Amino acid sequence: MRLLVDPLPKLGLFDSELELVVCIREDTPPEVFLMDGKPRPDRHLLLGIMQMIVVAVEEMDRTSLEFTDSCSIRLERNGEKRDIDSHLTVVRSVDGRFGALAIGDPRQVRRLARQAERWFTGTIRLDIP
After folding, report:
1. What is the mean pLDDT of the chain?
2. In sequence order, what are the residues at sequence separation of 6 or more whose Cβ sits closer than 8 angstroms to the Cβ of residue 1?
3. What's the N-to-C CA distance of the chain in angstroms?
């Protein structure tokens, strides 16, 4: 599975084989895409990735997050191509690295990252030790 991004981000992660892509849009649940043959990721893993993305957005971490004013993103999976229209796209490569591509206003991206973190937190029962 690959993301075809135009223009290509500086982070080399977006030019590698991906096992997980999470598209985060305003006021909708995150959309998760997986590499074929991979089991659905554990909810705790997804929450952990979102927590790392929230920190990366807050700290403007250029090693795992790239901001751009505009770009086109297309997901290529199983020979099919699908346009992605999210303002925050989180990826995890097959070797375990993660990162995000943020499009537009940093305040909106911060809000989207926090929204995704809350959504994934809600998928976990916190009352069970």
Report:
1. 89
2. 17, 18, 19, 21, 33, 34, 35, 36, 75, 76, 77
3. 36
